[in-house]
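Re: beginner question about structure tokens

> Can someone show what the tokenized structure looks like for a real chain? I only ever see the sequence side.

Sure, here's an example I had lying around. Input first:
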Amino acid sequence: MVQAEFTGVPGIIVGALEAEREYAGIIAAIEKQNRSNDPCPLRIAGMSEGVRGAFTALLAHRVATGHGKPLLCIVPDEKEAQKCFNLLFACGLKPIVYPFRDFIFHNITASHESEHERLSVLYKVLDGSCDVVIATPDAALQYTMPREVAMRSILRFGLDEPVDPERLKSFLVGAGYVRVELVDGAGQYAVRGDIIDIFPPKAENPVRVEFFGDDIDRISTFDMMTQRRMENVEFVEIPPAREILIGPKERNELVRVISAQRKRCEDERTRELLDAELDAAESGREINSIDKYITLIYPQRECLLDYFSDAETALVFEWQASSERVKAYEWHAKQTITDLLEHGAILSRYADYGKYHAEFEMFFGSRAAVFADTFLGSYGDMRLGGMFNIASRQTVSYADSYELLREDLRGYLASGYTVVIICENQLSAQNLHGLLDGDGIPAVLYTGSGTPHPGIALIVHGFDFPGFELPVTKFAALSLYPSQSSYSRVRTARRAAKAAKRSRQERILSYADLEPGDYVVHVNHGIGQYIGMESVTVDGFTRDYLKIKYAGTDMLYIPCNQLESISKYIGSRAEDGTIKLSKMGGAEWTRTKSRVKAAVKEMARELIKLYAERQHKPGFAFLPDDEMQHQFEAEFEYEETEGQLEAIEEIKRDMEKPQPMDRLLCGDVGFGKTEVALRAAFKAVASQKQVAILVPTTILALQHYQTLLSRMRGFPVKVDMLSRFRTPKQQAEALRGLKRGEVDIIVGTHRLLSKDVEFRDLGLVIVDEEQRFGVAHKEKLKQICTNVDVLTLSATPIPRTLNMALSGIRDMSILEEAPGDRMPVQTYVLEYDEIIIGEAIRRELRRGGQVFYLHNRVESINSVANKISQLVSEARIAVGHGQMDKEQLSDIWRAMISGEIDILVCTTIIESGVDIPNANTLIIEDADKLGLAQLHQLRGRVGRSSRRAYAYFTYRRGSVLSEIATKRLSAIRDYTEFGSGFRIALRDLEIRGAGNMLGPEQHGHIESVGYDLYMRLLSEAIQEEKGEKPETRPEHTFEIRLDAYIPESYIRSSTQRIEAYKKISLILSEEDAMDVIDELCDRYGDPPEPVVNLINVALVRALGSECGVSKTEQSGGSVIIYPAELDAAIWARLAGEYRGRILLSLGTRPYITVKMKRDENILIFLRDLFKKYMQIHTSNLEQL
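And the corresponding structure tokens:
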């Protein structure tokens, strides 16, 4: 709970409010109401934003210290929830937001993020691990799991406690957890022998429970990405993973109720829904529309407010607005219920999904609640226990103007005010102190202790809080943070940690997902199909093999400890999902590989040549950042990600060099590439150079143009646009401005590449999605880019393997994490249903948002728009597609951006770069016909603000989805986190990214040999062209008679066994071997002897390969070693050391015979032998 006292800068800020006489009166009034037998709420007016944050922190502190419970805080909307969270977080508290959840009344599959967030809040309320619960009124009134059910539905256990593993598994199933092979999300569990992995919704990290019989041997948290143990814990709590829990009793009742309702129902569509529900209920499967029956499962009818039924004090911001939100929620809920009843989809006694305005008013009107309002409002007949006014004023952000700060500060100090100035970081605090000192204004830097005094400004930093003034006590907090900075920084701590975890280590994706039926590439035999894993026992010794099918009846068996020769095929497929298999021993694969090798070699030569030429070209060294650049960057309304800051630094460093820059900036949708590019553009203009921004579509040109106008406002920068959206007159004016140097930044389509476009002094060209321009345009682009800096943007992720391969010959910056305020898009996959679509659109319109409705056929798009118009008659609808007249499309797009259009019925024209933060619902018809990468890009068009966004991927009613379409839609539903572009589509996006960067011809080569083999060939070609000798080791065949495999009893999942085999096959040193053993122990328990043998075989193979050994085999009581190249001197020396046990046989194929002793461990002996060989070899090299 809350710390005993506020300390440091938060202590100074909240202390200023605590000193207010009016505050003391409020506290006295609250205490008086708490003592009353009939308490009632208080009303406070006049609080500015910063004062609200301080007041909430103080009130939470009083509630916690008095009752040991969190404070309930109601805010009118999600934006205010966001602000409140940040203010409290800045004060050192632990706030948490309870989100509204869309109840699902239809047969729709949906992601469960909101459900997990709500459960996390409920359990943190119960265990007191949060300080303030922030909720909108509708979220607080929705029914949820009753408090008593929540308390008895949590499982707690600690070390050395007897817990039956089977009982734990049963509990997890009943609590709504989904069993998976590998835990990678909340609400999942996995079982491997005596180990159970669980990810409780309220936990930051999943937990691993290791059993010894029925006793718990160890409990630890683990990293979801690496699957490795993090830290041991003594105790664990496992709450439910779903809000609505269905036990046997509830399931039987559901079957009875749904069966009865099915008999009465006459509506055909509703009967289909009831049939699906009944089938799921009878078979024990998940019921997608279970929210419809929440009051059947939980007749208690409880909501979040019931978790605070014994709270004496609560806080409501803007009572009037909050009440209106409740009324809107009530109206919508009753409309939904009426609709369900009319269609016979629910019995009336269960048609109730939340509490309404009367209960809301009764809850807050019957306790010492505090209503904090900006202005006086109506409270109806509600009694008030007092009315107070805290005189306060919100101050402006001084980030833009030192002069304004200086003048205001002089006024405050002259009037005897105590002033605190809040800077963003220590450097800016020190700089400000120097400026104030130079102007003779008394100021001191805060050093961690002490209090401010009248007449001397106290400069603090790192406390992101809005400025405010308290005129009664003469206190002012003046903020130098950008005006909107803190309000985009919500819940960033958790997400930043998750992003860091994701980027720390990538799993071996190429093998982790390998399943029977998947296609693989063998370096020597080509493309085959993986059939499965088989264990083969010969002479009493067992090995595992991968069975690969090739053209005809050919089969290849590959030992699982030699997986380095194969990789999973990643590339495009035929319409039916198949790929042409190679013929074993045929010349076709050899020719294909030779053709690709020659192509990558030629490309490597060209890349290295271009890079060398670029290093010798004369360019322009841009000036270092000045004060105006700092001011421009400070006005960015969001917090930069680490990746953005790093990319900006790399680009600026390049620009300040005398050689022309040629850098590629890559990042997934919504990762902030535009802002990085804008900073580069501004830097160029600050050095008196012109900037050209080249984009592939007119819509994207308009989007960038309006972004530029907005960001450059207030700076001496002239921006213009060239595209078909401009009239001939406007284009002529833009061309004149460019030639005269009056236009600083021009954004345009390929029109910028026309002969009549002349620049006075072009310094920087920014190219967005270069791969979408034709060959002729690219040639023209090369001509205008001679000797100027070039920054290319790509919205498709570039794989790390490609980034590493091109390291040193291609400058790349990669953005790998999304802005922290973005919430995952709530994603639904469903049969097309007009009722559901109508509800989705109306909900977005009610919250003042806009909708993208995607219908990808121009010939029928107008009739679809008419259908939507009839469905949602109150909406303003427009149609947009690429074949429209330029003026018409321009007008529509401007209207969409300005909010004059509610629904844009469009084609995939919106796929690239479109950024309308107010559009937060996306509906796609025939989503099964689109590629996964395309669906991912399209989903990136919504959720570009801090508001929850929704995506509905629909397919035609009655259609049977293909296996590929089913997998595609399941993946887009399950991977909702930002940055999932790397995981989504079996790396579909990466293939597109690699092809985009390397060109269409190379894209074809990637398809012909598969992505992984292509990258291996490219790396080798580049090393060769750079004159670097690739490290080559002979392939070491190892044939020793012993059990060396992974038993199914140790790792049951074949997918995870292959992953383990791959990791073992990558062992190159004893350190690697120990790391693999540690991981196996972590994830599966102590490895049995065959697994230990397998690891030692991998180590000895690697060490032998390093010694130049190509084959080791057992023959009777001896081991025969065949070196690829014999170093007779070293082996002679070893023969002397081992005294007759080692014999050299020279001839056309030299070999070494090693005599083994009875019961001697062959692997340990060979490990030590090869290590001695390398010691002698290294010593010989040092002597040379």
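Each token stands for a local structural state, so reading them left to right follows the chain. The two ends are 67 Å apart (CA to CA).
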